[in-house]
Design a protein that fits this description.
This protein has helices spanning 2-14, 24-31, 33-36, 59-68, 84-105, 194-197; strands at residues 117-118, 123-130, 137-142, 148-152, 157-160, 185-190, 200-211, 217-231, 234-242, 257-263, 266-271, 289-294, 315-318, 323-328, 335-339, 346-351, 387-389, 395-400, 413-417, 422-429, 432-441, 445-451, 457-462, 466-472. The chain is mostly beta strands and 474 residues long. It is globular, with a radius of gyration of 24 Å. Helix 2 (24-31) crosses helix 5 (84-105) and helix 4 (59-68) packs across helix 5 (84-105). The protein contains 6 helices and 24 strands. The protein has 2 domains: 2-105, Orthogonal Bundle (Cytochrome Bc1 Complex, Chain D, domain 2), CATH 1.10.760.10; 117-472, TolB, C-terminal domain (Neuraminidase). The chain has a 5-stranded antiparallel β-sheet, with no helix packed on it. The protein has a 4-stranded antiparallel β-sheet with strand order 6-7-8-9, with no helix packed on it. Bound molecules: heme C. The site of heme C has 21 residues, from helix 3 and helix 4. Heme C is lined by residues 31-32, 34-36, 44-46, 48, 53-55, 62, 65-66, 70, 73-75, 78, 90.
């Protein structure tokens, strides 16, 4: 008992006033390492990275183990010393460490030219679509005649001929984009009736670049959507589909969102919260939202917030951080989105009209510096994610596979990861994630994954910048 009080007092004394700004690594070193090892390998207390959990491995279980402790075994109840947010950040840290430990033991599917890469259901080969000449390719769209359109972040729209040759000249006269931080020219998609109407949609950072009083360049921008047609290699018939009021432009260089899908004549697209966290919860701002508009930009009268005078009528769902994957399940028309979490907490969400996806009031992540954000991972009235990834993958690009080229993967969802340099296969059955597998790893940051009309899977890579595709190994 005396010992316990001593530990508790020591613990209390050791936590400074701004306790919640303490980095999680420091918390661990101070309070946990003595018994669980500096490398989490175990000591008096067990290993925290070997994947063996005596008291359960779920978020809630590990949280409870730390919060309530096991006094008989000399593991104190840390809720007496640490805030809920701090305990939550320790849970995230342990998940990160366990993941790293597991990664070291696995043999990831790293494809090499000319070789077969094996995965659980299909073996594939990788083919290079474009090896050179692209600078930060961001998104790809497939034209009915076999050509492909590719955006480059700095603002160029490129054309790949049906025979695979990259046109050295970008399409002329495309909208001016603000290339700043994570923003620039991002999404490209074609209208579902492109063959008859020729509309191409672009999503990009739109704003101004000015020289500030200090002589430094100042940029203000926000994600916008436009459409046009390409005639004789020129952008023509330009129309704005959604151009937010300039007052919403931000100097931040982060979280632009974008990505488009079409359903029933409507266009859905995302705008990230631009670093303005709480703006995601504010329906009078376009940031941190997924929109639904008619294909020409008009607001559908039956949008969920169309009748609310304080809301932007184009909003379909809110509480998003930075959605950069959007795809429609061809089996039932449901809309799925992946979004970047902070440190931990990337999400896959099923997007429903009017729903709140919780950022930043609930999250499975913490601040990048390892200080806690909140202990809340769920709340009444907030949509729970269909999948959460801790550590974050930096999810980017998302598509369902159609066609019969990879029959055992048909209708699976494929997601890219920038930081993890992976393509992840996700199986969804009856609206739930039932299986996941990393099918490609370690050949560059994956910016976009797109299933081509011929059933092959295109992967846009950054660093090195190129496009490859997965074809079945025969
Ligand atoms: C004085 C030694 C000691 C300290 C300090 C300590 N632990 Fe423990 N911990 C233990 C012991 C012993 C167990 C095993 C208890 C049991 O089996 O019920 C344990 C169990 C756990 C478990 C459950 C493991 C499982 O297999 O389910 C977790 C999680 C955990 N500790 C995390 C922490 C964290 C995080 C800290 C720092 C905030 C910490 N511990 C500090 C001794 C310690």
């Amino acid at each position: 008992m005396i010992r316990c009080i001593a530990i508790c007092l020591l613990g209390l004394w050791a936590v400074p006033a701004s306790a919640d700004r303490v980095k999680v690594e420091a918390l661990y070193a101070q309070h946990c390492a003595a018994c669980h090892g500096a490398e989490y390998e175990g000591g008096v207390g067990g290993s925290l990275v070997d994947g063996e959990w005596k008291h359960g491995s779920s978020d809630e279980d590990v949280y409870r183990s730390i919060a309530k402790g096991n006094v008989e075994m000399q593991m104190q109840a840390w809720e007496e010393v640490l805030s809920a947010g701090q305990i939550r950040s320790l849970v995230i840290l342990l998940q990160e460490k366990e993941h790293q430990f597991r990664e070291k033991q696995q043999k990831p599917p790293v494809p090499a030219a000319g070789e077969v890469t094996k995965t659980r259901m299909h073996d594939y080969r990788i083919e290079t679509v474009v090896a050179d000449g692209l600078k930060t390719p961001w998104a790809i769209a497939f034209l009915p005649d076999g050509r492909r359109l590719v955006t480059e972040k700095h603002g160029a729209l490129r054309v790949i001929a049906a025979d695979g040759a990259l046109d050295p000249k970008p399409v002329e006269g495309t909208p001016e984009v603000t290339d700043h931080g994570q923003g620039g020219l991002m999404e490209v998609a074609i209208h579902p009736q492109f063959a008859s109407n020729g509309w191409v949609y672009l999503g990009f950072a739109d704003g101004t670049k000015e020289t500030g009083p200090d002589g430094k360049e100042q940029t203000r921008s926000i994600t916008a959507v436009a459409r046009g047609r390409i005639r004789d290699h020129c952008w023509t018939d330009h129309e704005w589909i959604y151009r937010p009021d300039p007052m919403f432009r931000s100097r931040a260089g982060v979280h632009f969102g974008t990505r488009f899908v079409f359903r029933d004549g409507f266009l859905f697209f995302a705008i990230g919260e631009r670093g303005g966290m709480m703006e995601s919860q504010d329906l009078s701002r376009p940031t941190g939202k997924i929109f639904r508009l008619q294909d020409d930009g008009r607001v559908p009268a039956d949008n969920p917030f169309a009748d609310r005078p304080d809301a932007i009528a184009g909003i379909w769902s809110y509480g998003h951080r930075n959605p950069q994957g959007l795809a429609i399940d061809p089996r039932d028309g449901s809309i799925w989105s992946t979004e970047h979490g902070p440190r931990g907490g990337d999400e896959l969400n099923r997007i429903r009209a009017g729903a709140n996806y919780g950022w930043p009031v609930v999250t499975h992540g913490m601040n990048y510096d390892g200080s806690p954000m909140t202990a809340e991972t769920t709340r009444e009235g907030i949509e729970a994610a269909a999948a959460v990834w801790v550590p974050s993958l930096a999810v980017c690009g998302l598509d369902f596979l159609e066609g019969d080229v990879f029959p055992d993967w048909k209708h699976d969802l494929f997601s890219g990861g920038l930081v993890t340099e992976e393509v992840r296969r996700i199986r969804i059955t009856d609206g739930r994630v039932v299986d996941q597998e990393v099918i490609l790893k370690g050949i560059g940051r994956v910016r976009d994954v797109a299933c081509a009309p011929d059933g092959t899977i295109h992967v846009l890579l950054n660093r090195p910048d190129r496009i490859v595709r997965l074809v079945p190994a025969r």
